[in-house]
Amino acid sequence: MRFCFEELKCCKYSYLNQENVKITTTPVIEVRELVLDNCRSNEGKIEGLTAEFVNLEFLSLINVGLISVSNLPKLGKLKKLELSDNRISGGLDVLAEKLPNLTHLNLSGNKLKDISTLEPLKKLDGLKSLDLFNCEVTNLNDYRESVFKLLPQLTYLDGYDVEDREASDSDGEVDGVDDDDDEEDEEGEEEDFDEEDDDDEEGVEGEEEDEVSGDEEEEDLGIEGEVEDEDDEDDDEEEVEAVKGEKRKREPDDEDDDDDDDEDDD
C-alpha cells in the first residue's frame, strides 16, 4: 500500500470527515510504501514519519529540504530510499544503523563532494544500487572506478554496472513491492478482458438467437403462406366444380325447353 503526505497524519487513526462520518484508515503497520515528496522538513524531521512504520519497504523523500539523515527513524525492513534533490553533504554513517536492509539508495542532486563521504555505505552489505547524479563527486577523475572499488557490494552506480551495462527494470524494483502491484494490475486487466470476452460471447449468442428466431419466423410465415395458398387453390377448385355442376344442371333443362318448343311448332 502506498501513501502520500496528505494521508500520513491520519493513516493510523479513525477520524470524522466533513459529514461527521467516522472513517477508519489503514493502520501504520500495514503501510509498505510511503511517498512524502516536496514536504518541508522541520530541523531534519518529517512530521508523522516515525519508527511505527515497521513494515515500510519504500520511502521517498525527494526535495524535502533535508540537510542530514540523522533524524530518520529506524526502519528495519526498508529496502529503497529516495533522497534526491536535498542538501545532504555527509553523515551517512547512520544509514547502516537505522536502515540495515537497504538495497537501493538515491542521493542524486545533493551536496556530496568527496568519495570519502560515501565510505559509511560500506556497512550496508545488501546495497545493490546507488545513484549520485548531479552531485559534485561525479566530476572527480576515475569517479566510477573509485566508487566500485570502495563499495564492492554495489551492482549498479547511476543506473549502470561496472561494465557500463544498463540496469534492467526488474533490477530497479524493490523485491515484493512493485511485483505485487504489477500482479494486481495484471489481474485487474485479466478480469477486464474476461468481462469483455463474456460480453462479446453474450452479444454473439444474442445475435445468433435473433438470427435463429428470424429464420424460424420466416419459415413459419412461409409455411403459413403455403397453407393459405393451398387453401385458396382448394377454394378455387370448389368454385370451378360448382360452376360446372350448375352448367350440367342447366343443360338438361335447356334441352327440355327446346323439346317443348318443337312440340308447340307441330
From TrEMBL:
It is found in: Nucleus. Its main location: nucleus. GO terms for molecular function: histone binding. This is Acidic leucine-rich nuclear phosphoprotein 32 family member. GO terms for cellular component: nucleus. Residues 164-240, 253-266 have a biased composition (Acidic residues). The gene is ANP32B. The lineage of its organism: Eukaryota, Metazoa, Chordata, Craniata, Vertebrata. One of its GO terms (biological process) is regulation of apoptotic process. PROSITE patterns: LRR.
